[in-house]
Amino acid sequence: MNTFEHVIRSIVRLTTIGMEEAVLKTLEAHESGVALLLVTHQERAELYVEQFMSVGIGVSMEPADG
Asked: What is the model's pTM?
């Protein structure tokens, strides 16, 4: 289980998302079970997945049309 602080700090550290948006995305994921974090090309998305997994945060990616 991840703390809010860990998730928020990881989002800010690993992406270009700022603190305020990271807090909102974290709360959204907590409340609904899912939050759209980023839209990017496949190679970059795969890197994000690896980076988040390396800090113990499970994320997934899917095609923009999916």
From this structure: 0.89
